[in-house]
């Protein structure tokens, strides 16, 4: 329902407070007019490397997530990065238009865990060259087909 998303929309200051008060996410951020930026270290597993991540959310926008360090392209060893939006490189964390993310959802409870999960799949991909995170890769043919298939699957689950 489009109305419920608008009615339950979380403001940028609310999102910022949730991030600041989280007991599991340590980072620092900047809250400005119409824009929230949060920087943090993500280490998805105890055996993982540490990643410097920047999350930006603009009013009425969608989360823009970038790994600042280390350089994912360097780690990929010349292979095309999976599940990335390009120019600039941003993580693909959910399938747009499916309701997985909307402005009523909290960054600390949705996007941040999805970042960690993406990084786990990325580390596995570095070794196996097989993206096991599922989903639809940006730029694949017929973006509506993935949405239709997802909707059909979700209807079957009800």
What does this structure look like?
The chain has 5 helices and 6 strands, in the order ααββββαββαα. It is globular and about 45 Å long. It has 158 residues and is an alpha+beta fold. β3 (51-58) and β4 form a beta hairpin. Mean pLDDT is 86; it is low at 1-5. The chain has helices at residues 2-7, 12-21, 72-75, 107-128, 143-157, and strands at 27-32, 35-42, 51-58, 64-69, 84-85, 90-91.
Query: What percentage of the residues does DSSP assign to strands (E)?
Result: 15-25%
Taken from the alpha-carbon principal axes, the silhouette is globular
Approximate helicity band: 25-40%
**String of helices and strands:** HHEEEEHEEHH
Q: Radius of gyration, rounded? A: 16 Å
Which regions are unreliable across 5 or more consecutive residues at pLDDT < 50?
1-5
List how many beta strands DSSP finds: 6
Mean pLDDT: 86
Q: Cα distance, first to last residue? A: 17 Å
Helices and strands: which structural class? alpha+beta
Largest sheet: 4 strands, antiparallel
Helix segment tally? 5
Strand order of the largest sheet: 1-2-3-4
Entry summary:
The protein has 158 residues and is an alpha+beta fold.
Can you lay out the helices and strands and say which pair or pack?
Elements: H1 2-7, H2 12-21, E1 27-32, E2 35-42, E3 51-58, E4 64-69, H3 72-75, E5 84-85, E6 90-91, H4 107-128, H5 143-157
Antiparallel strand pairs: 1-2, 2-3, 3-4, 5-6
